[in-house]
Amino acid sequence: MNGHALTRRRFLKITAALGGSALIGGARADGSGTFVWSGTSMGADAKLSIAGGDRAEARRLVALTLGEIDRLERCFSLYRRESELVRLNATGRLDAPSIDFRILLARALAYWRGTEGAFNPAVQPLWTLLAAHFGRSGNGADPDPRAVERARALADPGRVSLTASRVAIAPGMGLTFNGIAQGYVTDRVSELLLAQGCHDVLVQLGEIRALPGKPWDVRIAPAGTLLSLENAALATSAPDGTRLSADGRWHHLLDARTGRSAHGVASVTVKAAHATQADALSTALAVAVADEQARRRIAARYPDAGIVLRRRHGAPEMLGRPL
Question: Could you tell me the pTM of the whole model?
Fold first, then answer.
């Protein structure tokens, strides 16, 4: 990717409606005793909201969360030179990959198959080409179709080799976990907090997950819809999250099957039991928006997910379970 200004999902924030809060030494508490930490994770705004308990316990949980985020960024980040993903893309090979790297890559490949290629973890060469092309000052022309086709041909997850001891990719390939890593990090932090006996916690690390306990009011960007969330996860994808071209024809929701950005959708929101699935499916269904039959086949493969597809004009389309 081409720097933090082009982070694919940076603007996609689902913000908790917590009411008037006051800053208390790096954490916030509202009148009902909800402590809130704010920061960043995987290039996105992050927030941890903890209802009840005391400040010391909240700080301990925040410290655990930050440690887990740091550990996982060393696996999946495209910005940390020492990360496993950066090393794999640089050399084409990663020996002794971490368990988390293997788990997330296996899930990403499964979603690639389950979404008929709409979700694609091997789209990085195409993203790199387009980010460089449109990042040049004053460059408003479309990229060279021949260069796009060469990059598109490299976006083939079928050429990824994954074993317990090694990950390998073909020459010229590059992987990205954008569109799934924020969900995975959200889930891992949620599981860590559950193991600490936590309830009544809202985890927002690019995607959002409410632990068992109280319902939380969350606002879905960019639609602004307010939703009550309890013991579930939520993710949203939208083309305006990162525009590559000034006119918006090229953006971060890339379809590796065509080499172009997907069009026809304002946003896709997915509610699921886990943020990893919500993240991957929101990306895939935003990419597959033009093919109604494929969209419905994909939704049918994940019947426990609730999906709302919003176009720029017209009524929302509901798939799967209601939100």
Answer: 0.89
